[in-house]
Design a protein that fits this description.
This is Arginase. This protein has 304 residues and is of the alpha/beta class. Helices cover 39% and strands 15% of the residues. The protein has one domain: Ureohydrolase domain (Arginase, Chain A, 3-Layer(aba) Sandwich), CATH 3.40.800.10. The protein binds arginine and manganese (II) ion (MN) (2 copies).
Length: 304
């Protein structure tokens, strides 16, 4: 399987500049070679074009979703690129940028995949907000909800009409910052979660066992893995928009990612929310590279 690296240089979904430099910063320190170390075929598709707009116009297209027009147009381009990659038998590895890119990724996966697929979302946040529940109006807090078909049609109809993933096929791990409205959505739609409290109580090993068991029971053959670096403990990632304490340690995160990729079912991946501008002493850069090495090694193992 060829790995296709796709950059998505956008900050409009989190409304805090800096994350748009994530893909190029990671290329600068050897992103492509890092994948080539363990994988024979790696191509860099470059960056998706993002329409630019002045921050004073963030509410120009919607009163409660910031930068709606630009988030949607960029994600439609991303969806097409992801769809093409999968249809060619390649694995799209989308590097953000903020997590609103989940909208485009999942629309692309949906368009390229006939059967149901699972989404594993590793994140401190649930990203299940709809316009009415969002405390911020930031679309990076909404991609999973919209992909599940919830909320405003302006997001749910992106690229392909309707629901991209069934709520029962969504698995969120690392949660520790969930908005009230998101709690209701998790309950109502039976979304599977492993919060940090669960992981601390039962251990990562057990969480992984439970996760893989549920997925194997579902019969699903395609997993989309969406990795938000703010799932790591705040002290490892000062350079991310919304760091949260009491998060994952490297060892736990690496074990989780390796086990998920080890199933051989992961066909598409996102890696998001690294902000080189707000980083301190390259801490977040180093954390990102260290995690990317794990992705590369795990993919190398199933690829060989
Ligand atoms: N992808 C992320 N980092 N999302 C953070 C979301 C924070 C908050 N729940 C919001 O909706 O505004
Ligand atoms: Mn996120
Ligand atoms: Mn997050």
């Amino acid at each position: 399987m060829k790995i296709e690296i796709i950059g998505f240089p956008m900050f409009y979904g989190c409304d805090r500049p800096g994350v748009e430099f994530g893909p190029d910063k990671l290329r600068e320190v050897g992103l492509v070679d890092l994948f080539k170390k363990n994988n024979e075929y790696v191509i860099d598709r470059g960056n998706i074009e993002v329409d630019q707009v002045d921050p004073s116009k963030k509410y120009a297209s919607h009163t409660s979703m910031k930068y709606l027009t630009e988030v949607v147009s960029g994600n439609e381009r991303l969806a097409e690129t992801v769809q093409n990659a999968i249809q060619e038998g390649n694995l799209p590895f989308v590097v953000g940028g903020d997590h609103s890119l989940g909208l485009g990724s999942l629309a692309g996966v949906k368009s390229a995949t006939e059967e149901d697929f699972a989404v594993i979302w590793i994140d401190a946040h649930a990203d299940l907000n709809i316009t009415e529940t969002s405390p911020s109006g930031n679309i990076h807090g909404m991609p999973l909800g919209a992909s599940a078909g919830l909320g405003d049609e302006l997001l749910t109809e992106l690229y392909v009409k309707g629901q991209k993933v069934k709520p029962e096929n969504i698995y969120i791990l690392g949660l520790r910052s969930v908005d009230e409205g998101e709690e209701v959505i998790i309950k109502e739609h039976g979304i599977h979660t492993w919060r940090m409290t669960d992981i601390r109580e039962r251990g990562m090993e057990k969480a992984i066992q439970e996760l893989l068991h549920k997925i194997s029971e579902s019969g699903i053959q395609h997993i989309h893995l969406s990795y938000d670096i703010d799932s790591l403990d705040a002290r490892h990632v000062p350079g991310t928009g919304t760091p949260v304490e009491d998060g994952l340690e490297f060892e736990e995160s690496k074990q989780l990612v390796s086990s998920i990729i080890g199933t051989g079912l992961v066909k598409s991946i996102d890696f998001v929310e690294f902000n080189p501008i707000t980083d301190r002493n390259n801490l977040t850069l180093n954390s990102s590279v260290s995690m990317l090495e794990t992705f590369s090694e795990a993919l190398g193992r199933i690829n060989s």
